[in-house]
């Protein structure tokens, strides 16, 4: 079962008012033909825009523990004719969706949600191509009206340490607006 705060505001229809998935995906360099793995995809806030970007030549793997969210993601992809989405329900700790296939493994404000973030990151390491990128978009660890309580969040230093311990080298850590940061890392 997903954490109660995952529904609000991460899957809230009003999320586009404070987060632009297309701009974020463009900013990380996602392009036609890429393979994009969205861990903790929910209903596809990032997966569906990514599928539009990568096109028929690319693939989007979406994984979430919430089977109903995955069903809604599949229905949305079908409605849009996005045949390049592979949506899987289950815990990220137990799934390696492909080996050395991903140009991007992406965490969209959810790394703190996993039962064992280290295991999920080690699985991500198996999925990312040698020249691929892990991207962790997450909440800054500060009080604010949205998102999980600050004590549940990972500050940038903790997230970077977890990412490094899973076999990555952090290449950048930048602010993504007033509420979020993005850490990008390559396989070490």
Describe this structure in words.
The chain is of the alpha/beta class and 188 residues long. 27% of the residues lie in helices and 28% in strands. It has five helices and seven strands; from the N terminus they run H-E-H-E-H-E-E-H-E-H-E-E. It has a seven-stranded mixed sheet, sandwiched between helices. Helix 3 links the parallel strand 2 and strand 3. The longest helix has 14 residues, at 67-80. The radius of gyration is 15 Å and the shape is globular. The model is unreliable at 1-10 (pLDDT under 50).
The topology string of helices and strands comes to HEHEHEEHEHEE
* Count of individual helical segments: 5
Structural class: alpha/beta
What is the percentage of strand-forming residues?
25-35%
Helical coverage, percent range: 25-40%
Note the main sheet.
Answer: 7 strands, mixed
Counted beta strands: 7
Instruction: Assign an overall shape.
Output: globular
Write down the Rg: 15 Å
Distance between the termini: 33 Å
Q: Kindly report the average pLDDT value.
A: 92
Q: In what order do the strands lie side by side in the largest sheet? A: 3-2-1-4-5-7-6
Outline the low-pLDDT stretches.
1-10
């Amino acid at each position: 079962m997903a954490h109660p705060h995952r529904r609000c505001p991460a899957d809230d229809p009003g999320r586009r008012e404070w987060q632009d998935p297309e701009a974020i995906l463009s900013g990380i360099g996602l392009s036609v033909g890429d393979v994009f793995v969205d861990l903790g995809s929910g209903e596809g806030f990032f997966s569906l825009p990514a599928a539009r970007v990568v096109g028929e030549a690319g693939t989007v793997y979406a994984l979430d523990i919430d089977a109903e969210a995955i069903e809604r993601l599949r229905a949305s992809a079908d409605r849009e004719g996005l045949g390049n989405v592979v949506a899987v329900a289950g815990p990220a700790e137990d799934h390696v969706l492909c080996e050395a296939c991903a140009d991007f493994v992406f965490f969209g404000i959810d790394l703190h949600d996993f039962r064992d973030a280290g295991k999920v990151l080690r699985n991500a390491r198996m999925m990312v191509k040698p020249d691929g990128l892990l991207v962790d978009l997450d909440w800054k660890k500060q009080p604010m009206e949205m998102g999980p309580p600050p004590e549940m969040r990972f500050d940038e230093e903790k997230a970077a340490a977890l990412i490094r311990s899973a076999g990555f080298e952090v290449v950048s850590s930048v602010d993504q607006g007033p509420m979020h940061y993005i850490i990008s890392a390559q396989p070490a």
